Structure to design on (264 residues):
C-alpha cells in the first residue's frame, strides 16, 4: 500500500433511497483500491439497510447497533459492576465489529431495535468511532437521506458530502431538502457539498438546469451501466467489476471533485 502525502479525508454519501448511493460508495472504494490512492481505508455503513456489505460481498457478523443494544440492556438491568465492565470494553467491542478485508476495513452501524432517545449511548459510540477513525487515511460513509442519524451516531463533520440523485423529481426534491439541512439547519458540517446524478440516460442538460436553480454544484453524471446492474442483481462484489462506463464516470468525479490532490 502506498503512503499518502495528503491530509486525511472523510467523505459521506447520502440521498433518496433507491438512487444508487450504496453502489456509488462501493465504486469509489473500487477506484481507490485499484489506483492505490486509498491509504488506510475505512468504510462506514451508516444506513440501517446495510446495503454496502452486500455490494462488497461481505457477511457482517457484528454491528455497532448490537453494541448499542448491549449497553442499553446492561444499563437497564445490570449491576453496577456489570455496567462498568461494559463501558470499559466498548473500544474492544467496536474493534470486534470492524471487518478487516483486503485493502480496507468496514464498520456497519446496523439497526437499533430499542426505541427512544439514548443520547449518552449514542455519544459514547460516536466518540469511539471518532477514536477508531483516527487510524485511517480515508473514510467513506454510506449514509441515508436523513443526516441527523449521521451526525448523532457517526460524526458531525465531513470534508465532502455527496448527494446522489436519480433523474426524478423526487430525487431532486430530496437533494434540495438535504442542502437545506446542511446550510440552514446545520445538521452536519461539510467543507464541500455536491450532487451526483446516477443512471443518467441523455438528459444532462435538464438535470444541470434544475441543479443550477437549487444552487447545487454537480460533481458529475453516471450513465446507466448494465454491468453495474448485473453485479447488483447477482450479488457479486463491485470490487471485481471490470472497466465500464459507470466505473470511468465515478473515477472522473473522484479525480476532479473529491480527491483531486491524490489523482493529479
Amino acid at each position: 500500500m502506498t503512503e499518502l502525502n495528503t491530509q486525511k479525508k472523510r467523505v459521506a454519501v447520502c440521498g433518496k433511497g433507491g438512487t444508487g448511493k450504496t453502489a456509488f460508495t462501493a465504486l469509489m472504494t473500487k477506484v481507490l483500491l485499484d489506483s492505490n490512492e486509498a491509504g488506510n481505508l475505512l468504510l462506514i455503513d451508516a444506513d440501517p439497510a446495510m446495503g454496502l456489505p452486500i455490494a462488497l460481498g461481505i457477511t457482517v457478523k457484528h454491528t455497532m447497533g448490537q453494541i448499542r443494544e448491549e449497553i442499553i440492556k446492561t444499563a437497564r438491568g445490570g449491576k453496577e459492576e456489570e455496567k462498568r465492565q461494559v463501558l470499559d470494553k466498548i473500544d474492544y467491542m467496536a474493534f470486534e465489529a470492524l471487518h478487516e478485508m483486503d485493502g480496507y476495513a468496514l464498520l456497519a452501524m446496523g439497526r437499533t431495535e430499542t426505541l427512544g432517545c439514548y443520547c449518552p449511548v449514542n455519544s459514547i459510540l460516536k466518540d469511539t468511532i471518532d477514536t477508531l477513525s483516527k487510524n485511517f487515511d480515508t473514510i467513506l460513509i454510506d449514509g441515508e437521506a436523513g443526516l441527523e442519524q449521521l451526525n448523532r451516531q457517526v460524526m458531525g463533520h465531513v470534508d465532502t458530502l455527496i448527494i446522489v440523485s436519480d433523474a426524478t423529481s423526487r430525487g431532486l426534491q430530496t437533494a434540495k431538502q438535504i442542502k437545506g439541512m446542511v446550510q440552514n439547519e446545520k445538521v452536519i458540517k461539510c467543507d464541500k457539498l455536491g450532487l451526483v446524478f446516477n443512471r443518467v440516460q441523455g438528459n444532462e442538460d435538464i438535470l444541470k438546469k434544475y441543479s443550477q436553480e437549487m444552487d447545487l454544484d454537480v460533481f458529475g453524471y453516471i450513465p446507466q451501466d448494465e454491468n453495474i446492474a448485473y453485479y447488483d442483481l447477482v450479488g457479486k462484489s463491485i470490487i471485481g467489476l471490470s472497466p465500464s462506463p459507470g466505473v470511468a464516470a465515478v473515477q472522473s468525479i473522484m479525480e476532479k471533485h473529491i480527491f483531486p490532490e491524490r489523482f493529479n
